Amino acid sequence: MGKSKKPKKAHKPQLSHHPYRKPTSKPPPSKTKPSPKSSTPSSKPNPNPKSNPHSRSQPSIPLPLSPHKKILLLGEGDFSFSASLVTHHAHTSGNLTATTFESPQSLAAKHPSTPTSTLPLLTAAGHKVLYNIDATKLGLPHTPHASSLSRARGTFDTCVFLFPHVGGKTTDVNRQVRANQALVVGFLEGAKRMLKPGGKVVVSVFEGAPYELWGVRNLARHVGLVVEASGRWEWERWPGYRHARTLGDLEGGWKGEERGARVYVFGKEGGGEEGGVGDGKGKEGDGGKGGKEDEGSEEDDSEGK
Description:
The chain contains eleven helices and seven strands. It is α/β, with parallel strands linked by helices. α6 crosses α8 (about 115-125) and α10 (about 175-195) crosses α11 (about 215-220). The relative contact order is 0.18. A seven-stranded mixed sheet has the order 3-2-1-4-5-7-6, with helices on both faces.
């Protein structure tokens, strides 16, 4: 009896050896399950925790965008910011000139609803809409498609370029940064030509890398402008406005409205301050509600409004 028990004990490990080989093929699924769970939080929350909590602590600043001002808007992606000024900030007196780098055809291809919904709203309010406008060639003579802007040189109270970006020109971060710096410098130089004495320039950029590498303050100083105010860009202050990408309307992907951003108001040294949206000096009086790329730190095609 005792001897017969020993073979049974020795026999079990041999039989159990094969069943344990099948489980060894199951661990890979168990290893792959945690990876999507761990990657999902790291890709989505990264932009917000790094930017928004910090930016919410920054004070709101008035912007020189009151309805009585003559305003030039550059790089309008889907023209939703211009539309927000009209529908929510009483810009109904025809003082806006909204421009895009796109042609009418490329605009319709990238933002199909804009020509039929947004643009009629602007033109009905008497505002100008211009196509094929290069923001780096403002006010220069013999500039293609910009003759009307050349004639308006020195007549604007405010020049605005929200979230300027050249698009995904290259995957090399340094080259991409230099290309965007050139875009910003070209715009700032042109904006100076378009402004009347005491005029202001408004530029917004996303927070974090690689945008902080652009050094917007230093670029402005390079062309003879000084920072008169800077603070958090308030997406909620502009109902209906959404950040448009250079590639056009895309399904999925990151949304600029979910990222923290900063806005700068530049002026010539000794230019003085003027009333604006949210400071109580403008006509609309509804702009100061107080406290709007990207996945992680990779730069993307985030130009435009």
